[in-house]
Specification:
- The two termini are 43 Å apart.
- The protein is α/β, with parallel strands linked by helices.
- The chain has eleven helices and ten strands.
- The relative contact order is 0.08.
- A hairpin with a 5-residue loop joins strand 7 and strand 8.
- It has three domains: 2-65, Arc Repressor Mutant, subunit A (Orthogonal Bundle); 70-159; 161-273.
- The radius of gyration is 22 Å and the shape is elongated.
């Protein structure tokens, strides 16, 4: 284990044993049982490990072992998903946006932050700043959620693949922008249930989301004529911005009444048509 080179014997014993027990998240009592030390001696050791960034304090009495670097593997990301579950203040939370895209195989690059949707405002612990993003959503928009095993012991709540697309098209700023979403849709195009996707669009009932989806499906020539026809019903008089994370340098308008400030050529190049 790489960390052992910088740890003393007692600290190395603790970290090694916690890994052996498949316990990346642990409480003070777990450390006490392993070390056989008093409560005060154990908390002093844990405080030192926090300062040295070997572990991170999630909340009172609960800690997470920090692997060497973000994006080092699924086990690490899984640890952060579980960490979010531990510190979130609502049982209706769910792993969302970029993180859900990662889970469903929609990304081609490492994930370096964890996005969690919650109906209650959540203060990010100091140690989690830069690693976790909590996005407050309306409770009525929490649907299309699955419980998935993240390891042999823990389940997490996460948006299913179709709801992930709806969320991402609603809030492109939490997903790397429209080009990243477009790439993700293309990657999973053969896994999508387009009837469910259309049902979700109708349930969400946001014109701009339906138009962004329809524009991409038509551009990629995926789905079928029925879904395109139904999505066209959301096209009204108003023009909307295709990617709100970008400036309006382009003014390419189209039958979907979207101001395409990305460009079809750029999107097609990204997915390597």
């Amino acid at each position: 284990m790489e960390n052992e080179k910088t740890l003393g014997k007692i600290s190395a014993k603790l970290i090694r044993k916690l890994y052996d027990e498949n316990r990346p998240i642990f409480e003070i009592k777990h450390a006490q049982n392993i070390l056989g030390k008093s409560y005060n001696a154990t908390t002093d050791l844990l405080s030192d490990l926090v300062k040295r960034k070997i572990i991170v304090r999630l909340k009172a009495g609960k800690y997470l072992i920090i692997p060497q670097e973000m994006g080092s593997g699924e086990d690490y990301l899984g640890n952060w998903y579980i960490a979010g579950k531990e510190i979130i203040n609502s049982k209706k939370y769910y792993i969302a946006f970029y993180s859900a895209m990662n889970h469903w195989g929609m990304l081609t690059q490492p994930l370096i932050k964890i996005f969690i949707a919650t109906p209650k405002r959540q203060i990010i612990p100091q140690e989690m700043i830069g690693k976790m993003i909590f996005v407050t959503v309306k409770e009525k928009s929490i649907w299309g959620i699955k419980e998935e095993w993240i390891n042999t012991k823990e389940k997490i709540r996460i948006s299913n693949i179709e709801k992930t697309i709806i969320d991402c098209l609603t809030f492109p700023q939490h997903c790397g922008g429209i080009t990243e979403i477009a790439k993700g849709i293309w990657i999973v195009k053969d896994k999508l249930d387009y009837k469910i996707l259309l049902n979700y669009v109708n349930r969400h009932n946001k014109n701009v989301v339906a138009k962004r989806l329809g524009y991409l499906l038509e551009l990629f020539n995926i789905g079928d004529s029925d879904i395109i026809f139904e999505l066209k019903k959301f096209v009204k008089d108003r023009y909307d911005l295709f990617d709100p994370t970008l400036s309006i340098k382009r003014m390419n308008k189209n039958s979907w009444r979207l101001i395409d400030n990305v460009g079809q050529k750029q999107i097609k190049n990204i997915i390597r048509f």
